[in-house]
Queue: 3 jobs
Job 1
Amino acid sequence: MTLLNETHDPKLKSWISSANDPSCDFPIQNLPFGIFSTADDPQPRVGVAIGEVIVDLAALEAAGLVSPPGAEQPVFAAATLNPFIALGRAAWRDTRLQLSRLLREGTATLRDNSALRERALVKQAVAALHLPVEIPGYTDFYSSKEHATNVGAMFRDPKNALLPNWLEIPIGYNGRASSVVVSGTPVRRPNGQIKLPDQERPAFGPCRRLDIELETGFIVGQGNALGEPIACEDAEQHIFGMVLLNDWSARDIQQWEYVPLGPFNAKTFATTISPWIVTLDALEPFRVAQPEQSPQPLPYLRHAGQHGFDIHLEVRMRPAQAARASTISRTNFKYMYWTMAQQLAHHTVSGCNTRVGDLMGSGTISGPTPDSYGSLLEITWGGKHPLTLDSGESRTFIEDGDELTLVGWCQGDGYRVGFGECRGEILPALPGAR
Amino acid sequence: MTLLNETHDPKLKSWISSANDPSCDFPIQNLPFGIFSTADDPQPRVGVAIGEVIVDLAALEAAGLVSPPGAEQPVFAAATLNPFIALGRAAWRDTRLQLSRLLREGTATLRDNSALRERALVKQAVAALHLPVEIPGYTDFYSSKEHATNVGAMFRDPKNALLPNWLEIPIGYNGRASSVVVSGTPVRRPNGQIKLPDQERPAFGPCRRLDIELETGFIVGQGNALGEPIACEDAEQHIFGMVLLNDWSARDIQQWEYVPLGPFNAKTFATTISPWIVTLDALEPFRVAQPEQSPQPLPYLRHAGQHGFDIHLEVRMRPAQAARASTISRTNFKYMYWTMAQQLAHHTVSGCNTRVGDLMGSGTISGPTPDSYGSLLEITWGGKHPLTLDSGESRTFIEDGDELTLVGWCQGDGYRVGFGECRGEILPALPGAR
């Protein structure tokens, strides 16, 4: 582990005692940013999760206890993180340090100011969480070699599962930003065109092969101008942080529509992200080497050092009536072949510009074994091997009422830097064949 | 021609005499909306083009001469059209009628108020035109049967050029909104991965097969909520207007990258649109039947009546040193197989939401004959049949310094409703293989 600065010290404790539980996602080493509101104050504003509470940064900023360098006006009394993120990396770091010092054991400023503490600490249980950023553009990559190989084997040729361009290009495509929703938002099963093998023409109706894709996403913190690519070596400096991302996918709609321009209605009905953005700074101690890349990438995709991150990931599925969820996949971000830096360098190498708040999905994260696959398509191998849940029910794809939850965390020494949940329940399709 | 209301009367003349020239793109029957600024007043604001001038709507609104119904605060002193468009169809129609009455021959209010006229009429020649809308999402369709057939014949199988899904689905994909630029913005030739047939690995370098795609785009004026599709019969009510659109394409980058998720870097470096949005109301007299669709589309894609528009389109190419441009293609929007209404109904049928200002490209518009094809790829048949320009130079694809211009207009009786220009000059690629 790398101890870049005092915010990473594993021994740090907070005077907010719930943050010191070793199984808590939000210890003082994490300090992820999000947008929340409460029944008392329905105005969405910036908060930081710690233990079981949210620290209201708008309140701290108004009280003069937190002030991001470079801010000419308040940035935390905002309904999105974009104004704060736009201040740049030095401001993110400095604010993180200010918060770490304010919330650590022994610092009395906020702890002993009961009036302010009352206003500024909100129980997560009573808060509503909102989409943390306004997302000008959403791009989804396809950077897990295991996932690309599995899909290629199923849909094309098992002997040549990986397409020739895959080892050269961090393949990606433009997603639909408008339908990115925050964890907890119910997702309606899409209707669409489905072409069954024994039918001459497609039929219109509810998706029958509704799936998840376990992904992470990163949020662009500093964009680039049109025509000015971001070099691979510099790319991480442009990344604010990461979220969990569920790229809901209608496999039957996708299979019929995707040639030759890629997936469209199969993906555009919803993409769910977790509400807390874990900063790249908080993830720094969990940096690991990415898998070896062979052939060596073209020069514009090269970067020295380690660019993987050791993030444990799980998928949980809970049928409507089940008392508890079953874990159906356990994998890790460190398996990803292409790094976030390579994705961003490739995205911009043509001159394409990026903007503050842009969301870039990793692509489905599959590990080497079936219990580490990141989609039901792979876990049940196209529906051939149904999954048995703890409740005794079996599943090939998602049924109405099922709730799917992604979780993720980095394991530190006595603490974990967690992402919280990325959750969605499936509602029945709209009725009528229209 | 349909005379829906008095704004369509072919006999209408304006007291702005340049608007009465039969070859002018902007007669009083058009009244397209855009965003402009001037050296004297660099604040971008809403204007309407008529004849050789721009009517400054911010100035007219401030003077109380134009007031869109439903506006609770000024909407024309804005840097984008989004606040105006968000007022909805009734407001667009009413504003158009107010302007038509104010600018027509015989109305003295503005004509004889020299102080206001001085402020509110700006010569187009001295104005800078900006992107007319903030574009939350950009989608590009692929709705010309001739284009899809030509591309399929070149890249896949001439005998089965059209893929099986094409006649059932208005195929579309998500584009990159960040790099949509307004006419006149220079476009830098992209660098990217290019895989030559005789090489084992791709090389990185400037695109060698840079192309245009002649398209139109429509601007969503009224969006839909997530999970609430727009019915095909209602879809035109959601459209504010149309622009010309050049979907610049790097064919060599595209060919290597596009399998299996579609075009990405080959398209994301720039998309140019014309600055004036011609309202669907202004296009109403030019409504024609779309081509016959066989097989009959699925019910969710059906709409009674005529949904094509008779829009003449041309592509002009001017090499750096040439005195004048050569027209290299003449086609018409009426050839489009899938209608804008069908595109929007399909886009949202999965539940995907759309937003005010969303841009939807038609896809390359090719007619039935080689001189009506909408891309150099088709015109030169993959570079096999070079084109000879009026200057004597020959071209397969675009060279550095070439200027490409799309123009379009509807021909009325003694007037034309034009789109102005959609123009871009190609700059050399950034140096260095990085």
Note: The domain at 6-130 of chain A is CATH 2.30.30.230 (SH3 type barrels.).
Job 2
Amino acid sequence: MNDIAADRRYMAAAIALSERGRGLSTPNPNVGCLIVRDGHVVGRGWTQKGGRPHAEAQALDEALDRAEGATAYVTLEPCFHLSPRGPRCADLMARAGVARVVIALRDPDPRTDGQGATWLRERGVTVEMGLMAAEAAEAMRGFVLRQTLGRPAVTLKLGLSLDGRIALADGSSRWITGPDARAHAHLERARHDAILVGGGTLRADAPSLDVRLPGLEDRSPRRLLLSRSPAPEGWSAIADPEDIATLDRVDHLMVEGGAEAAAAFLRADLIDRLLLYRAPILIGSGMAGIGDIGLVDLADAHGRWRQTEERRLGPDRLEVYARTRSA
Amino acid sequence: MNDIAADRRYMAAAIALSERGRGLSTPNPNVGCLIVRDGHVVGRGWTQKGGRPHAEAQALDEALDRAEGATAYVTLEPCFHLSPRGPRCADLMARAGVARVVIALRDPDPRTDGQGATWLRERGVTVEMGLMAAEAAEAMRGFVLRQTLGRPAVTLKLGLSLDGRIALADGSSRWITGPDARAHAHLERARHDAILVGGGTLRADAPSLDVRLPGLEDRSPRRLLLSRSPAPEGWSAIADPEDIATLDRVDHLMVEGGAEAAAAFLRADLIDRLLLYRAPILIGSGMAGIGDIGLVDLADAHGRWRQTEERRLGPDRLEVYARTRSA
């Protein structure tokens, strides 16, 4: 007899684990896995740096023989394709004697795409698929968009005043938001594979775009420039927002400004998520956060964004919006 | 034996009643009054249109002889000055046999200024002063600022996109916010004595600035223009934000735009409250809500505003900020 509420709790925990690998696991999806026996968590895993070990392998490694007869919660269907880099997780689970596997999302990768579940079922394992699939897809959105649209998931991050300014007219923007908001923004950087700025921002601010948080210094993402000119050392350049599809090992991309780069991505309808750090200040005339996005009718602006999160960060407020329309 | 928690509950109710008279009671303060006997509310009052009857007179009129031995909660010290327009409330209360009067705010008007409380005490009435004084002062802020600074309380209202735009570049702003936010904004209009716009907004939008809510049509405030040119019929003009001090019977003023009028009031440090209706849309290049406020150093922008309220209004969000610095 299964307990749906408990299943949801455990899957939510697996999804939270999967978030730990976001921006780190590429080119593999940031999967999370929890193994539970008799109401006790006996194994936890998330896809590690560069994609190996997989979440399931890591969780099984922690569980050892306690995996026998246990239930595994995994945010993505266990892989079934052969790889020189590691074992097939569906087979690992069957061999470990896992009795039941609860999967959030079926793997859209055609090399697995249901075969992992089939393999498990054929070996007598109970398999359930689809629990909290939307939440899992959101946590692995870079992988999902790469599979479905052939491009990374893109977040636009802005630090704004109440009246939507990102800097004074002379460009000064230190500081609009406070230390709590800045620390959160650095944590978000660590969860992206790459960060992009426009040429104007590079020239004006020479941003280092690194993660300045204790213990996460090595999580600084790659630095990208939206520019037709050659990139300086330590940077890569793309000429056009659509070129993000060609980026290797970038599933989660954060656009950090300026207004023209933000507008270019919005015009191309390539922003999936808005990460707005809002300070309780007024600036008045100054630099706007977003340039011309080609809007000619206000009606077209509506219905595109829904708020998914909101929290205080010291004196500031974080507002997260997700796109409502598919690209 | 008094019950502090009950006292606070009743005073909060009296403050809520006082809000009903905001924008209506001028030139008198929008006072609220609740009379309670043996745990039952026996009288309620708030200052009526044009200032009479006073809240206490109205509440006593409802209570009749149940006021005998009761406790009265009143947001402002009962008046003691002689007026041809009505009785002195301190005397009315003593004559009605009220046993105890709990007052939030001492009346700063020098014609009363403690004399109402003294009169009551001399007649054997228990008087307590200061309960929830800050909250009461906030509800009667127009009166308080008129007494202390010689000018009305000023609210700046803006309907904004996430990126701080109030209209497209061509000026079109119908609609940024939805019907729930617009209804709320109309209710706020009804609670102000006058609404001001700049000359550009008058020319571009010819706003009627009336209250279009069923039952509140007669609560439409006076229309003011910030302009050195003569005002059209049905409007009055002031040349400068400081001129609000000269306005007769305006204790609560709302500035509705545009960007230059908003900036002029902010430059003069004459905005006490921000009423921001935020729509979940991006506009990009377009009209900013606030023009040049003379900010030259970001540090000077901080610490001026604290959020006092936040709520959803359909798809939009209302954010209310109060000034933290005294003018």
Note: Chain A touches chain B at residues 158, 160-165, 168, 172-176, 263, 266, 274, 276, 279-286, 288-296, 298, 301-302, 304-307, 315, 319, 321 (CB under 8 Å).
Job 3
Amino acid sequence: MKRIDWNGLDEAGRAAALARPAQSRATELRDGVEAIVADVRRRGDGALRELTQRYDGIILDTLQVGDEEFAAAEARLTCELKTAIRDATDRIERFHRASAPVAVSVETAPGVRVERVLRPIRRVGLYVPAGGAPLPSTAIMLGVPAAIAGCRDVVLCTPVQADGRCDDAVLYAAKVTGVHRVFKLGGAQAIAAMAYGTDTVPRCDKLFGPGNAWVTEAKLQVAGDPAGAAIDMPAGPSEVLVIADEEADARFVAADLLSQAEHGPDSQVLLVSPSHALLERVGDEVERQRRALPRADIAAAALGESRLVHVRDLDQALDVSNRYAPEHLIVQTHDPRALLEGIESAGSVFLGPWTPESLGDYCSGSNHVLPTYGYARSYSGVSVASFQKQVTVQEASAEGLRHIGPCAATLAAAEQLDAHRRAVTLRLAAMDAIA
Amino acid sequence: MKRIDWNGLDEAGRAAALARPAQSRATELRDGVEAIVADVRRRGDGALRELTQRYDGIILDTLQVGDEEFAAAEARLTCELKTAIRDATDRIERFHRASAPVAVSVETAPGVRVERVLRPIRRVGLYVPAGGAPLPSTAIMLGVPAAIAGCRDVVLCTPVQADGRCDDAVLYAAKVTGVHRVFKLGGAQAIAAMAYGTDTVPRCDKLFGPGNAWVTEAKLQVAGDPAGAAIDMPAGPSEVLVIADEEADARFVAADLLSQAEHGPDSQVLLVSPSHALLERVGDEVERQRRALPRADIAAAALGESRLVHVRDLDQALDVSNRYAPEHLIVQTHDPRALLEGIESAGSVFLGPWTPESLGDYCSGSNHVLPTYGYARSYSGVSVASFQKQVTVQEASAEGLRHIGPCAATLAAAEQLDAHRRAVTLRLAAMDAIA
């Protein structure tokens, strides 16, 4: 990990210190995904079968996972894992239910009622990656808010494994969250299938979930097409920033940095601290712990792009963090809650020594589908609201129109929109005619 | 307006009947906008001055509107218009405040607290078009939620007029909503300036507001660039769908259809009704009222793409509406509220004879920046939430980690993420060592 002295840097140096590994939408990737999307639109299920054979090496008889496959998957799982999936689901449900949007009704003037009602997005498509390892936790993170939002048609795509099956735990997690329509599809072809529909895969209004560069590029492409589908957010590699002071336990901090670094060689981890001693200790501890990991090589690659940043004090640490806008922000300081007020941009925050990022990744209750790559400056993580539309409703009585109609007519006249004005004045005249 | 019998159509005919005028991101438009964006990124303020001279025919001394210009604009406005702007702002504020997201705090397990906190997006850019006529109402619709969200830096761009000034009412509306940084910039160059920043225009994290095809294309381009800015939503031409029954007043319905049609030749208006007689009456009335409008030609062009749709009953009318997913949905039936439950996809809904769309456009309290072009299937209109990030926070005590740590460790093991697992087990071991 590279050591950086924040106060020894000029503006350009600071920008470089917080730069993320470049993410170019390379022409090759763009063209490759465009070809796949076009193929799926043109040839539907036939294309899906061919692409799955080409990329996953599997000849699929049926694309959809059948009831007996769900049952067999469940039977193969340990009781411990099934219990963990159900417990995690319960806690995630509790938090997501509590933070779901609520209906609103306000009288803004006598006789004028304005409301906000909530409507589920009808058909949603969830993508659960299984590139490195399958991610049942992502099935929970997407399935729970979709269910609370009341989405009627929920579709889930996840890559098929070498044995022709989908991962047992992903299927069980899907079932526990109420998702029964699962397709053995991965990559750009899965995104294309959900965005445009085929004979077998229903066309979805919005797509959710993380994925590799192909999946991400496909999501961007279908989101840019009015005939395509909306997406949850743009995505990049995972990342964590830790703010820690002298009192932090270097072993804990190192473990948290590594749990991000093992995600992939392009993951980025930063430690920001006013304590030279801590930076030193954590640097050593990271190396020590890393060697024991099964994914030690991946972690080493990620650590190559990572930073130990020395700052003047915790206020400056907050400045650095807000500027970076990390997906995950861990605070291990003497009084972590004292820093919360100053946190402006982050996907999810973890306070104190006993809150490793793993808790949020799996089972504290918050969502782990979060904005990466600096998008935390303007995007939020997935929540129930991501699966709903907020529709405004207004109803004026004759009295209400009398009250606010003249205001609307004046503004319409200022905007030279005469038909807008007349839609009001014609009604006011009709009222007078009745009276 | 074209008459359509919904039940006489097959599936393809129904799709065609609800098709919107094609919206292609023509290569010419794309390339033209790309060139402007690149020029603004490269040459900054110099490019802005040149482009403004080329497209608006104005040589700008300073890009930013000065204090004395605000004061002069206010002095030129009528008392009536200023009062209307303030009254509308008050009501919009009331509704937006009531429907703003709230902080949440939940204990999801003993010793595990999960919260949602709200943070304003730091720098936001508002675009207020003035192509046909200037739109002070849009300045209100964007300025009010930005202020309630607590955005610290708010920038507004609006095209310069032939007299070298910005519209007086737009400036006054900006000031009333607390926006003091206004730039005399329009078109793709305004979007580029706010997305990337110049010496004069600050770089913004998210851009809001409607605009013509150039503005919309520029917004899509900067949203697709990680170095660019997020946007509120994709946009298309404005549209309304009216559901009316035998009892509706044909004059009111016609006036509402026309107030949408006058927006532009590509606006689309639909009337859906089970009553042949009403469809007939409204058709006649539209033609009669249209002739009296200053923008009669624009309305005639829009009506050419519009439809009178006959359906079996009001349930079928709802089906048609949900399938179309209109930006504005007006319900003028015997019991309009009875239909609300069945409305799935719409930007904003107007119930009953005394609620013309103009009320929502200007001053009922709801927002008029709404999803068009079928995006109401998956997007919501602008609200306070659009200007905020929802950040999740978790804090576990040692007891909390004991409770849910094993669940996280089990799931991490299932996902073969060993460092995730160890970040938990190492802490649990440390606890045991202390005890």
Note: Residues 27-231 of chain A form a domain with the Rossmann fold fold (CATH 3.40.50.1980).
